[in-house]
């Protein structure tokens, strides 16, 4: 995938030189001449690296760097300060604000390439570490912490947009028997395959995570109750019909699902939605398993 570089410099000659150097390297290059536009562009294109001039009118590079580092969406983007300043305290200030590196003017092509490549390697490494921290190692779904964090963000977003949202809790039926009869390695394989079925069954905007043990959670943003039920029923049926090859033996596995739906007009907190979905799952388990139940909640 082509890496994206954002260049911010109010001197058009410097801008042209940097664009030419980095375009020849094969990067997708975006450029602007002021700090406010830089903030808007960074939010829109999410660049891999930002080259930022220190001395600019209105909003200087220090302030832009500070604002970028304060936002969750842009705080991890490596920023390389580009400066003609020779005072070491300015470089020190830039690094203290979170800048990754700096380039001195006049611009040297070899130095620019080397420092940008170094920043990109750092970003790639950081992105891998971040992904590992977010994902469950076995299923490669979001882990419990991230699932809940993303649910809270979507809940607040759909509240603002006045859209419906649904939270589903899924649990593998008789999972302990799989581990007891075939061993934990086989149980892990079943978990991975079910994770894959769930992931391939939901919409692109939906959020799937491992809630814990053999339980999963799904966040369905901007959705109607009927569509949420249809998707959950499709997941349930797909798993029921899937053949799991365990130690050269074909076995069937089922899953129980509890959901809680909040329409745009209803007032229920996100943690109450989780609790209602959990109670619905418990009801599904105790009324025969392999079914989808809707959780009831108090509407204010």
From TrEMBL:
Modified residues annotated as 4-aspartylphosphate in this record: 53
InterPro entries recorded: CheY-like_superfamily, Diguanylate_Cyclase, GGDEF_dom, Nucleotide_cyclase, Rev_trsase/Diguanyl_cyclase, Sig_transdc_resp-reg_receiver
Key words of the record: Phosphoprotein
SUPFAM superfamilies according to UniProt: CheY-like, Nucleotide cyclase
This protein's record includes keyword Hydrolase: no
Alphabetized CDD domains for the sequence: GGDEF
Residue span, Response regulatory domain: 4-120
Listed GO biological process terms: cell adhesion involved in single-species biofilm formation; negative regulation of bacterial-type flagellum-dependent cell motility; phosphorelay signal transduction system
GO molecular function: diguanylate cyclase activity
Domain GGDEF, chain residue ranges per copy: 163-297
Pfam families referenced in this protein's UniProt entry, alphabetically: GGDEF, Response_reg
GO CC annotations on file: plasma membrane
General function of this protein: May play the central regulatory role in sporulation. It may be an element of the effector pathway responsible for the activation of sporulation genes in response to nutritional stress. Spo0A may act in concert with spo0H (a sigma factor) to control the expression of some genes that are critical to the sporulation process.
Name the UniProt record assigns to this protein: Stage 0 sporulation protein A homolog
Species of the source: Clostridium aciditolerans
